[in-house]
Design brief:
The chain has one domain. Helix 2 runs parallel beside helix 4, helix 3 packs parallel to helix 8 and helix 4 packs antiparallel against helix 8. It has eight helices and no strands. It is mainly α and 223 residues long. Helices cover 82% and strands 0% of the residues.
Amino acid sequence: MCMKSIASLIESYLFIFYLLADVLSLLLAEVYIQRRLKRQTYKLYSINPSHILFMLGVILMQAVCSATKINTYTADIVLLGISCFYIFVAYTDARIRIIGNDVILLFILGITAFHLINSSLSILLYYLSFSFIVFCLLNCTELIICKTTHSSQGIGMGDIKLLCATAYLLGLTLFIKMLLSMIVLICLHLFILIISKKYHPKQVIALGPFISFATMFVCLLSF
């Protein structure tokens, strides 16, 4: 009865739970940033208008998913957890260009528990193998970029870890959809920078927010 009551409560007020999760994630991310700033000096970056636009898009999709109620109780809980993690990562990477190892590790443990509960060990090994392949491909890409451009500016190690964790969560098909969504979001971001005359050719783009928002879009549409 208790579980049914909780499920009914979440289904009835799902969008409120989404908003609370979004706000809580942002607050925790700010606390995390302030603690990192006390231990080490980082440059603080301002939030880009495109990040706010994409966040509003996520909230709109959360509202649509809540209204249609197409997900199961389990899927709702999983999506809430995914939203918390990726909003946290998007905010910290946008603000201080950091994706913490501790945060990634905690997320990977959560994904492992999710796969073990909802699938067999062989399926878990498939997701793990795919994540390792993505890790190798991304590191090779990073090496090629650095060698050809003679620069140390490429795909950040934090972005690589986040992409591998995302591959571990999504699997091949959804991961490809996420990459396509990420490319679209980056193009929109560059377009906004160009029309607002804030674009600089040597500007470094934090990929964390784009990976996060693209993953959330794909998850909200697919789970």
